[in-house]
Amino acid sequence: ERxxxxxIVSTLLGELEFEEEDIIMFPAGIPAFEQEKSFLxxxxxxxxxxxxxQSALNPELCLVVANPFAFFPxxxxxxxxxxxxxxxxxxxxxxxxxxxxxxxxDFRESTANxxxxxxxxQESKKGLQFIATNSDYTTRHPIFQPTQAEEQTGIAAAExx
Length: 161
Known about the structure:
Number of helices: 2
Largest sheet: 9 strands, antiparallel
Distance between the termini: 55 Å
Order of helices and strands: EEEEEEHEEEEEH
Low-confidence stretches: 148-161
Strand content: 25-35%
Helix content: under 10%
Mean pLDDT: 87
Oligomer: single chain
Shape: globular
Radius of gyration: 17 Å
Structural class: mainly beta
């Protein structure tokens, strides 16, 4: 069967050529972008935990996402049966987890939304945004921690509520 190549000129990333099978479908969209259902996941570079989640149809929409475990090794969420079914998932090993970042002008002040990670089934190419209920996580977790020295002296700045 012939592969179908597609193209989008992303506002952020320029011209992207991709195959139809590269598209990750979010049947319910992503909150705030419910009408956007098809996305491309593009690594920012070799061996870095950052990715672009570019809409396959809307050149303006490109989110920055990251592998949460690179910054929060103990991060965990409880995924229910219903979500697994929506992702056509038979085993959890098929799933990839990403968190959406808010990136201000100073990249070092970037924060991660740990309450609502994106879960993608790499086999079925289906994704959803999972909203964790009763979690201790916040929607704006700093991803770059204060230095070890600050932590040991206990002088780390108090987090604003």
